[in-house]
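hey team, just a heads up i'm posting the complex here instead of the shared drive bc the drive is being weird again. everything in one block, sequence lines first with there labels, then the predicted structure for the whole assembly after. its two chains so it's a bit long, scroll down
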Amino acid sequence: MGDPSEAPSRQYTNPRSFQGPDGRRSQESSQPQAAVPEEVPQMLLSQQRGSQGPPSGLPQTNLRWSQGASLPENENWQTSQIFQAAEAPMGHSEHPGFPLGFQTHAYMEDSRTLASEHTTNLMLQQLQQGQGSLFQQLEPTYHSPGASFLSQFDSSQREDQHFRPSTQHSPYPRDDPGSPRFSFSEQGFLYYSPEVPEPQPRDLAVQNAKAYLLQTSVGSDLSLYEHLVNLLTKILNQRPEDPLSILESLNRTTQWEWFHRKLDTLRDDPEMQPAYEMAEKQKALFIQGGGGDREQEMEEEMMETVVPNIMESAFHLEQASVGLSSDESFRIYLALKQLVQQQPVHTCRFWGKILGLRSSYLVAEVEFREGEEEEEEEEGEELLLEGAEALEPHGGEEEGEEDEEKVVDVVPKPQWKPPPVVPKEESRTGANKYLYFVCTEPGRQWTRLPHVTPAQIVCARKIRKFFTGHLDAPVISYPPFPGNEANYLRAQIARISAATHISPLGFYQFGEEEGDEEDEGGAGRDSFEENPDFEGIPVLELVDSLANWVHHTQHILPQGRCTWVNPLQKTEEEEEELREEEEKADQVLEEVEQEIGPPLLTPLSEDAEIMNMSPWTTRLSCSLCPQYSVAVVRSNLWPGAYAYASGKSWEMTSLLLPYPFSGHPLTYQPASGSKDPNLGFQLPTLPPPHLPFCPHPHSSTWLSILPL
Amino acid sequence: MDAESLLLSLELAAGSGLGLSPDRRAALLTSLQLVKRDYRYDRVLFWGRILGIVADYYIAQGLSEDQLAPRKTLYSLNCIEWSLLPPATEERATQMAMVKGRFMGDPSHEYEHTEFQKMTAEDDVVVQVKEETRLVSVIDQIDKAVAIIPRGALFKTPFGPVHVNRTFEGLPLSEARKLSSYFHFREPVGLKNKTLLEKADLDPSLDFLDSLEHDIPKGSWSIQMERGNSLVVLRSLLWPGFTFFHTPRTRNHGYIYVGTGEKNMDLPFML
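-- predicted structure starts here --
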């Protein structure tokens, strides 16, 4: 059978590569038609093929069609013609090629249906109007049902047989001398002609255009033709609204997708690696410690754990518009649980979060069990002693050198002695009452912060630096801070705790044994315990009066400690050293007054004002439901420090960039807001504010505002 | 942050520690819808919260079709009733420079500020500035200084108006950590100063705003990745309390300011 085999060959005499679906479709459509049994008389086929005649006859064809359109009996056959012409662009050129005859049969719908006739008329009009547009040519592809070519073909075949007599004469004027000649008498060879048919001028133009579109550049493998097909497929698949307005973006993304294929499923996405690692670490938090009887574990869990109920505090804080998201709070709870398992912890509390430049710190306030923590303390002290001893031999060497030099010249010895170092407080007392652990994200390792020394506190009051997020980063400032970021962090935590840790009045009470105040150097009682008879204060009262809140941490003196220590009281070793050197002149200046601070459990109403503003702001969390709302106290001195109380539960937290608020900025500003720099500078003339808990008698300025 | 995706945005921005209580959130969801209807805005953004001593201000902004057109700012004390603020002017900005301290929380509160007359050593003029005016200029300053969007979220049409880019699929992870992928959400100031060589690499439909790279002082932005790589948070160090968040490879992005409305003038010393 020449026809089935020739049909495809005829199709591809015009060399064009077809995109998958289109080309395949044309193949498929032709195949079933080609497989049409031989019952279809060759005659019929040849007639129809012959009738399509020269491709250049399309305009004339249209004319003939329009003429013939009025003839109802020819309509169906003409629709076939039209479909043929319309099908031409489906992977082919504009003009109706012979193999399209097969396809049009496929697309010839039931003549009984009016819709098909309507569409054919439409297509006829469209063809008449815009033959050059690729879109119109593509359109019929989407009208085409993919199914059952055969059935349509069968039905059409039956109808065609009716028209056979009338289609003896081709509607195509066969006046093109260059066109291939097809005589009706030729049977079976119409799709095959011995010579390669010359492409018609329109054919040629389209071939050239398409070949140009299929060009790929040196830079990429993607040709414009392929890209346009991808783009249009994407648009038609996704069907966005108003695609014209986003055409450029779609264009760009289509191109991008071509070159960035999705990775295969065997490899992990390298960019998401850190996210996966973090997720793994946090997953470890969620998995309970394995081993052991499950029942036993549950019982142990049900007992009192050291870890507080973070979720409850988070809930209350959320009422106060403060706090991390609830899933973050839960992760923090799990991380605290992990900390408790790793360290010998007696009590534990989530202190808060401090934001840094590159990462933030989650701080946990912890008290060790008795006797546990001292090992590390001793290690720290030993290191310090070693450092001090290392320095002393140097001093000896210097003296030796000077003796030698005395012969030549006497180098005057400096008279200045550094001020005596205030000893740091013992652990579990004063500023070092609690131990602090930090980590950057829940799931990561908890790092312990060293104890704070008074010198660090004093210096921390004078400087303001951002935290970078790495504990070993140096703190470069003036006056130079003695320590690295871990020490600075600890110092700030100490200051914030001392200034802002408050509780409702009556929750804590002093122990029954009261020492003599004078003997203790004016530091007052420094221990308190929970009041078992505490019945919460009504929320409204908590909001109205600041006297209902008290500080329960010790105030830090200007010296940097909570209990005052006279730095002049030297140990015996130091006194011996003094006798060796001649320093009596200095002793006159070293008389220091004893520093006294407010005693423990003083109410907030005693706090000094900042800038004519109360250092605390109280608020009811929700004005719409005052019965159930929570009293919130916000510190104006340390923005970010919040406390809430509701009934018997209360909690403090600090979520902040840890800088105190102050009266006026450190920088200069022109007097009248004009931008002329020549007007001269004027320092703001506000008096130094009296800050409640960290008075610094030597400073005349204070660091400026840093709100949260 | 867009009022449409308010809940998700609040969750993502919660890392800074300050958010909204449930009752405020619920109130916002309803009232912002009504604001959008009444004022016929194209988009309504919840700008943030300015903390005052007595009360807090909740600020929202409404945008028209052209995203870069001047925005309308509204404030509310209870998240239900919103009042329109007057637009900011230069003159107001200069007056504000002399007012310091916290916001009171009362829009009709008047700050008294004596202006020293240099030329005539006579009466010092006492200028009274209303808190509402101060609010306007502070919001304007913050907007001009730190309101940011990721690159590609807006695009400029050839006719001029700037529209939301519907095909914005988020910044790729390689770009999310760079300051150059974020633009200021205001009229560009520094674009003309770019050299021709730089301009050649730009795409005029996407790169029509100032990027954050050349902000002064350098280092006034802190970029952090939370949860491994899946959330980018930018915090401004110049206006503490301003947080911008973006989930790379998704469309979610937004910013919120929760703070006292005071600029951090000490920034160069703190870095």
